[in-house]
Specification:
Length: 71
């Protein structure tokens, strides 16, 4: 059933920001939103652009939140 397959799919997010509070707040919002829908999400957090680049692969994430002014 297409509906059941959609519900069981994971959505993969990457958050890249050098401010840990921003990462935590965004992660909490995503988790809360997905709990309401019953869908699953996977969230990878990176505190440097270098760390993100080491793990990045094409098609790995559906959504990437990237701070444009990393220090």
């Amino acid at each position: 059933n297409e509906r059941n397959r959609e519900k069981n799919m994971e959505v993969k997010f990457a958050i890249c920001d050098d401010v840990k509070e921003v990462c935590t707040n965004l992660e909490d919002m995503l988790i809360e939103a997905f709990e309401v829908t019953g869908k699953k999400c996977v969230i990878d957090i990176f505190y440097t652009g270098e760390a993100f680049c080491k793990e990045f692969e094409p098609q790995k994430y559906e959504v990437v939140f990237l701070d444009i002014e990393l220090t």
